[in-house]
Specification:
mainly beta, Jelly Rolls, 4-stranded antiparallel sheet, 13 strands, globular, binds 2-oxoglutaric acid, binds manganese (II) ion, Oxoglu/Fe-dep_dioxygenase_dom, iron, dioxygenase, oxidoreductase, broad specificity oxidative DNA demethylase activity
């Protein structure tokens, strides 16, 4: 199926926007590859549907999640962790599609992090009024590797803070096709997503999908 919004997606010009040392946004990066990404998400979520996990203290997350890769990120009353198995059905998470892997490696490389070997991709689904509160990604064993985060669908405001939760937060508009990479001195910066506003995307409808690649094991 051809999902592309552009007559010739290879015409789209990407550009880079710095956030701070170790963090940047690759604008439009994934637009030429949107068909492969959307096909992959469809295949993964048909067998491992998006679900609203509970935080360790019992709150239902407003973002729905699924995963692919060697391990997937899960949360329940026992805490946050990576698991090789989908807790909904006990099956191994699906293999990360080759297209996902190579795009994540390429994005990391362009951001100045060569040799990225993602073994986990968390797929987040946001709808109107979903949000992700400020947090650090610190459940990964390899904090030397960056986080590579793809945005698809309706826009979001990405919140990028400091090393303390109470540090000031910068706000970045993220659109379909944008990729945020943070690593090195920025790897443990607090970040989150502000309340999603009602919108519709021509390919994805009223949702935002975020793919977050990590080197977790
Ligand atoms: O949706 C986003 O842009 C960020 C997602 C995120 O920070 C996470 O899944 O840990
Ligand atoms: Mn995160």
């Amino acid at each position: 199926m051809n999902y592309s919004l552009f007559d010739d997606a290879s015409d789209v010009q990407p550009w880079t926007e710095a956030i701070c040392e170790g963090a940047l946004i690759l604008r439009h990066f994934s637009i030429p590859h949107e068909t492969a990404l959307l096909d992959g998400i469809q295949q993964i979520s048909s067998k491992h549907p998006f679900r609203h996990l509970r935080t360790p203290n019992g709150h239902r997350m407003s973002v729905a999640m699924t995963c692919c890769g060697e391990v997937g990120w899960v949360s329940d009353s026992e805490g946050y962790r990576y698991s090789a198995y989908d807790p909904e059905n006990g099956e191994h998470w699906p293999t990360m599609p080759d297209s996902f892997y190579s795009l994540a490696v390429q994005a990391a490389d362009e951001a100045g992090f060569p040799g990225f070997k993602p073994d986990s991709c968390l797929i987040n689904q946001y709808q109107e009024r979903s949000r992700l509160s400020l947090h650090q990604d610190k459940d990964e064993k390899n904090l030397g590797a960056p986080i590579v985060s793809f945005s698809l669908g309706i826009p979001a405001t990405f919140l990028f803070g400091g090393m303390q939760r109470t540090d000031p937060v910068q706000r970045y508009y993220l659109a379909h096709g944008d990729v945020v990479v943070w690593g090195g001195p920025a790897r443990l910066r607090y970040h989150g997503v502000a309340l999603i506003k009602e919108a519709a995307h021509p390919l994805l409808g009223p949702q935002r999908i975020n793919l977050t690649f990590r080197q977790a094991t």
